[in-house]
Every structure is written in structure tokens, then in C-alpha cells.
Design a protein that fits this description.
five-stranded mixed sheet, alpha/beta
């Protein structure tokens, strides 16, 4: 199976190719939210490196969120366009699941966290159980203090949300809190591709017409609109 993945949930923009269960090409840029400029040239590059064309793909996986409102929209629209042009199925993979999968190990839950600001994080808790990678707690947006009340102990923390609240976590959990390096556990297109292959094998492709990013909470623009409509009514 040849599967392409797109990861644009954060300022990290990545694409990857998996061929028969192995990441054979991956390209990552961390240049801020300029994904609309870089994404398609990156796709063309990984396909060219594999001497493949979009019509050779068996499927495509896209990071479905949480993350940047703009970044997710760009990634989702691009993935849908490629699927329609190549007539291949699409699967959506949690951004947090990809982060956790890229660094997870047996024996300790991984709490993947993205900073959502205002003392909130996007968090997902994942672990290996009987050789299967599963979500112990579904992805959600939560206040950091409330999250710490729910966590299993010990746990491995990854992502910019973990480092943004490093001192709070250590103060609460002490030696039961482990942290991956700051450069580890970031959004990862290769992990999205590998998880995408699993979902495609399980027949979990999505409806291209209706599938939307998983924001977990309304964008700031949506909140402003809701407040204005409530005031007008």
C-alpha cells in the first residue's frame, strides 16, 4: 500500500509517504503558518523522490486536528482535492494520536498536548495495549489543572502544551511525570501516514464531502460571531 499523509495542524508542515508499512519519504518545514505556499511543492517532492505520481496512491491520510484553525483548513482542503483528483479514499488521523505514536512505548501512557492558551491545552492520552495503539482518553480541550486530576500516574508528556505547563505538571506529579525533549513528539507526518494505513486497512475511510477538522473548540472568529448574534437577538 502506498499512502500519502498531510500534517498542517501547527506551524510544522509535513508530508510523508508510506510504502508497505514503512515510511519511505518524509518532508517537514517549520516556517510558520505558510502552508498554502509550501504544501503542494512538498507533495510533489516526496512523490518525485519515490518516482511515483498521485495516481499511484492507494489512499491519503490527513491530520484532522486539533490545532490551528487556518492550518487545518488548508490541510483538509488540499487532502480532499488530491483524493478527488486521484480517486482514492481519505482517512482522518488525530494530530495528538500522531504525536503520541511517534514516541510512545509499552508500559507508560503518553499524554500528547498542544498549547491552547489561556491555561488550556488540547490533550489526548494514548498507550499500547496488547500490541494495539489505543486512546485511553479521547482528545479534548481542557484546563491544565483539570487535566492533571484525570491523568494516570506515571505518564510521559509530549508537545508544546506539556512544556508550556512543565512547572505546573512537575509540581503536581513530581517524579511520576516524564517529559520528552522539546524537539520530540511534535506533529509528525510519518506517524500520521502509519496510523492512516491502519485505519485504511480497517475500512475507516471518511466521506470526503462531509469530513471536517476536529477543532475541539470554536475558533476565535466563531466565538466573536456567536457573541455578536447573541447580542443582536
Amino acid at each position: 500500500m502506498l499512502l500519502l499523509s498531510i500534517e498542517t495542524s501547527t506551524p510544522v508542515c509535513g508530508v510523508a509517504l508510506v510504502d508497505d508499512g514503512q515510511v519511505c519519504a518524509q518532508y517537514t518545514l517549520d516556517l510558520g503558518i505558510h502552508h498554502s505556499t509550501h504544501l503542494f511543492p512538498m507533495v510533489e517532492r516526496v512523490l518525485a523522490d519515490r518516482q511515483a505520481d498521485v495516481t499511484d496512491l492507494d489512499g491519503l491520510a490527513v491530520a484532522s486536528g486539533p490545532g490551528s484553525f487556518t492550518g487545518l483548513r488548508i490541510g483538509m482542503a488540499s487532502a480532499k482535492a488530491l483524493c478527488l483528483s486521484a480517486n482514492v479514499p481519505l482517512v482522518g488521523v488525530s494530530t495528538l494520536a500522531g504525536m503520541a505514536y511517534s514516541i510512545g512505548c509499552e508500559g507508560i501512557p503518553v499524554c500528547a498536548m498542544l498549547d491552547a492558551r489561556r491555561d488550556q491545552v488540547y490533550a489526548g492520552i494514548y498507550e499500547w495495549k496488547e500490541e494495539a495503539f489505543v486512546a485511553s482518553v479521547p482528545d479534548f480541550a481542557v484546563n491544565i489543572e483539570d487535566l492533571l486530576d484525570l491523568l494516570p500516574h506515571p505518564a510521559l508528556f509530549i508537545g508544546d502544551g506539556a512544556w508550556a505547563h512543565h512547572h505546573t505538571i512537575k509540581a503536581r506529579l513530581g517524579k511520576k511525570a516524564y517529559f520528552a525533549g522539546r524537539e520530540l513528539g511534535r506533529p509528525n507526518a510519518g506517524a500520521i501516514a502509519l496510523l492512516g494505513c491502519i485505519q485504511l486497512h480497517l475500512g475507516k475511510q471518511v466521506d470526503i464531502d462531509t469530513f471536517e477538522p476536529q477543532y475541539l473548540r470554536a475558533s476565535q472568529a466563531e466565538k466573536v460571531l456567536e457573541a455578536r448574534l447573541a447580542k443582536e437577538s
